[in-house]
Amino acid sequence: MLESELPTPCYLIDQTKLKQNLTILEDLRRRSGIKILFAQKAFSSFPFYQMISRYLDGAAATSCYEAELAHLFLKGENHVCQTVYEPQEMETLCAICDHIVFNSPTQLAKYGPQARANGCEVGLRINPEYRSQKFDDYDPCAPFSRLGTTLSNFSSADRSLISGLHVHALFEQNAGALEHLVDAVIEKFGDYLPSLSWINLGGGHHITREGYQFERLEACCKKLQDQYGLTVYLEPGEAIVWEAGYFITTVLDIVENGMPIAILDASAVCHAPDITELQYRPPLIGGGAPNELPYTFRLGGRTCLPEDIFGDYSFDHPLEIGERLVFRDMAINTLTKANMYTGIAMPSVAVRAVDNSCRVLRTFSFEDYRNRF
Ligand SMILES: *Cc1c(COP(=O)(O)O)cnc(C)c1O
Q: What pLDDT does residue 132 have?
């Protein structure tokens, strides 16, 4: 069907853009020898896993369910890095993963031998205490962070159990931040690197964004490859689906209270929580910044929640009831974070194939809401 015939609200995944992103990553792998894994948390939509695995080395999970999903639907290596493990999970993960990363020396001591006995490569997540971000809340290296082992705690780790290190400390960053991160890792943990065989530099690399400085990324990975003989892994998530999704909505009502407010058939709180949680402002096709175009509207969600606002956007015409609005860059953290709070239905999920034809993959119903109990 045509995009204009899709039901709304609807998440639309664009296979052309997904393929472009994956091709950039595949080219990087080919020329640099860096191994690239798909970090699933931003986009755990398994119908696309087969396509993703054609371009990458495998998957990275931060939970047992993600690891199970990758095991079922994605070919290649299967890595997992959790803060803590429970005995049952460990049994499952030992059977389906080839790399298991622990967050602390105590977890390593508790489960490392079991992972090794099952033939898994074992790693320890480190915290190089390199601050790359302004916001403490989202920085794994902020003071008092529970994520990763600091150098002062590293001495208590049984290093005979590990063959690699894992570090994840970036968020939507260019290669300059990665250079600083690698410098911090070498400065603090450099003495231990020659005895290891791999290092995983986590996610947060904005690799598929225009202007990303590949030469700088490749140079600092080459240092780790050549000087220390390490296999270098990257596990980007967002970069794989960057700009590869749309969210299509319909204006159901227009009210006036100091400014015109369009009420959509969707919810920011339920369907794109990054908007209200992280102040994310999705680009909107035909929409500008407030007052940039002649008609500024507030776009509101359909729930009873006062905070359910997509944002203020301006248009070249007054919005009308029945009009469709299409947000861009809405594949990241949308379906994975979507919820049915206040009993709001889930959007449909559709795909736009490379020939531009669209197809609905999944719709949701009242049963999905009821079955959450
Ligand atoms: C979230 C996460 C990633 C992926 O980060 P992106 O910002 O999506 O690239 C990779 N590794 C770990 C451990 C993570 O928690």
A: 83
Q: Whose CA is nearest to atom 7 of ligand 1?
A: 204
Are 241 and 332 in contact by the 8 Å Cβ rule? The answer is yes
Angle at 315 between CA 311 and CA 318, to 5 degrees: 105
Cα 237 to middle of ligand 1, angstroms:
6
Query: What's the half-sphere exposure (Cβ side, CA atoms, 13 Å) at 362?
Result: 13
Read off the pLDDT band of 91 (50, 70, 90). very high
User: Does residue 63 register a pLDDT over 90?
Assistant: yes
The mean predicted confidence, pLDDT, of the chain is 97
* Dihedral angle sign, alpha carbons of residues 102, 117, 191, 37: negative
Tokens at 87, concatenated:
């005995």
Domain 3-11+245-330+338-370 CATH class label: mainly beta
One DSSP character per residue, 280-309 reads: ----BTT-BSTTTSSEEEEEE-SSS-TT-E
For ligand 1, say whether the CB of 203 is within 6 Å of any of its atoms: yes
Placement of tokens 């082992």 in the chain: 149
Cβ atoms 129, 169 nearer than 8 A:
no
Place of tokens 């109990």: 373
In this chain, the answer to whether the domains covering 3-11+245-330+338-370 and 33-241 adopt an identical fold is: no
Secondary structure (3-state) at 373: coil
CA of 267 to the centre of ligand 1 (A): 26
Task: Let me know: does 44 contact 64? Beta carbons within 8 Å.
Answer: no
CA dihedral 125, 129, 134, 139 (to 10 degrees): 20
Helix axes 64-73, 87-96, angle to 10 degrees: 20
pLDDT per residue as tens digits for the range 150-206? 999 999 999 999 999 999 999 999 999 999 999 999 999 999 999 999 999 999 999
- Domain ranges in the chain are 3-11+245-330+338-370, 33-241
> Which residues are bridge partners to 295 per DSSP?
315
Instruction: Decide whether any atom of ligand 1 lies within 6 Å of the 168 Cβ.
Output: yes
Per CATH, domain 33-241 is 3.20.20.10:
yes
Looking at the CA of residue 125, tell me the nearest atom of ligand 1: 13
